[in-house]
Amino acid sequence: MAGSVDLITTVLDLKQLVGENTLQFSMIKELSVPSGVKKIDRVDSEITGVKAEIAGDTVMVEGALILNIFYLTGEGEEEKEEVEESFSQFIPLPGIEYGGDPKDLALKVYPRVELAELDKLVEEEGKTIFAVTGVVEIFVFCYREINLEIVTDIPGGNLEKNIKENLFLENFIGGEGEVISLHSWIDLNKAAARIEGVNSNFEDLTWEAAQDMVKIEGYLINQISYNQESSGETLEESSRERFSHTLKIPGVQPGMKVKCYPRVGGITHKIDPQERTRVEQEISINLFVLVKEGIIIQVVCQEEDDQLSLPQEKLLLYQPVEEFSEELSLSTEVELEVPIRKIAWPGELIFDNLQGEIEEEYLEIKGVLKSKIIYVDELSGSTGMKNFEENFNHRFEVPEKDEGMVFFIYPRLEMVDYEIMEDGKRFKQNAVVKVYVKVVDIEEQWVYLKGDEKYIDTRGEESTGGTIIVVYVIQEEDSIFNVAQKFNVSIDAIMKVNKIDDPDLIYPGQKILVPGGNPF
Asked: In degrees to the nearest 10, what's the CA dihedral of 512, 513, 514, 515?
């Protein structure tokens, strides 16, 4: 009967990402409320009924965006209108086709509302019509759960003749998102009649993994544009708000790889009627954090003399090569049939037909930004709708192309505004798009698994008639003499195979090889 072979193993228990991507899109819808609305108090947003399903090399995500609009009537009473808009989006996941049977893959979907906003269009026939816009961003992660006991070493004697490889693996720990609020008072240099707009960006943003949590700190810089009360002149001033927040994510450990995706969800300003140089500012920041763990394991991937009979499994290695991003400015001029008074901001936008192609040392990105806006007709005062699109392309310098290299490409809309031309029939849409690219190298690697292992002698026969080598652990009372007696072999044979010069220099816990072992 075959002897037991001593193996050093480790348990590989992880969620290996086989695909990830982010999709951002917006939806716009008209909302009619009774005339006499004194003010829109707030807009609460929620995403419900989210379902996701793998379809080829994409994931289909369905759900509904619910916006609850709270407003005050002329009598000061609070009323609520609910807007529900269903969505169905296909999110490409390059590399997912390498993940094996789709039944073995799992999905994590993290949707969040980037922006929920109303823009007053017109009042007609006793009603006020608003354009309701919701900007949604969906993070999708596809992973394969791996739980294997793999062989990392075969110690001792001739069994050291094995080939080892370093496996570079990425363990998906999890993601979490929360919305935080910042409240402050801003002192302006001049009295303000109204706040025209605000541009925001983050500075000195840092994040750190701790035990079961991620700590995030940074500053939000706001460039505020307002009309001076006395002259009507447009002025600008800036504010700098510090924020700090902790997101709880089970399984996070110090030193893990963290990525933070902050976005400004909304900003409101209220001018103090008694002191119009003072403005109350309320900001909501949408934080999303993704945590991964990089793992390097040295494993036995090939036994040189085929001395072991062990089960094997093929692992797919998704090794991150490089990540980079760049901002693109897109300007689209659109002509309408009628002159217009205003455009609902930011309109409905979605990225489509994204493609990436390697040309020498460059990655050529191509895609389409599809847009839909609601406008107010200058002559009739009624609302209309216009669909248009803008093709874009950009070149990234990339590392040398490998056969198993896959590119994950996902754009994010950073900013959009509109400029109506002098004739009123033409307008420009100016958009800033940030394109993220992640390069992953996909390789295959066979590994040995812990199982009912057998040692096979050099003649390729099982140990029924050949030499049996047994790995024995020295006990407290053992000596080379009694081990030789126990296995009915000579002392010289044990000393030779283990390269022992002094038979007295052995110790409890030491592992030795016993050739021809045949215990009584």
From this structure: -160
